[in-house]
Design a protein that fits this description.
Strand order of the largest sheet: 1-2-3
Shape: globular
Structural class: mainly alpha
Helix content: 55-70%
Number of helices: 4
Radius of gyration: 15 Å
Distance between the termini: 32 Å
Number of strands: 3
Number of domains: 1
Length: 113
């Protein structure tokens, strides 16, 4: 419950700072991600997860991890899709959906045995 409250508050604060384009693009990406992602943990969604086998581990690159990396790269390089508000809104919606909707969002390294 605490993590959800923090995520919602951060989204609201960022939305106030970046404006309505951030909110609209955030909502768009959240809804699209809800549609194409799996409904629960362990199910296969319309878009497959990226899982990399590495020795005795599986590295699960959740979509929120990839989106967070893209947001960081966008911030550092100052490369945006259209505007910074839209870019960060789209990526923040994906991050929020990945953390808010799944109970295993923190499991990145998984033992293969």
């Amino acid at each position: 419950m605490k993590k959800k409250l923090v995520a919602i508050l951060l989204t609201i604060v960022t939305g106030v700072m970046l404006g309505y384009l951030f909110i609209l693009s955030w909502l768009f990406s959240f809804l699209v991600c809800k549609y194409v992602a799996s409904k629960s943990v362990g199910e296969r969604g319309k878009v497959r997860s990226i899982v990399i086998p590495f020795r005795r581990w599986k590295i699960h690159l959740h979509h929120w991890v990839c989106s967070l990396g893209l947001a960081g790269a966008s911030f550092v390089t100052d490369i945006n899709f259209l505007t910074p508000a839209i870019t960060y809104g789209l990526l923040a919606g994906l991050v929020f959906q990945g953390i808010y909707c799944y109970g295993d969002w923190y499991r990145i390294l998984i033992s293969r045995y």
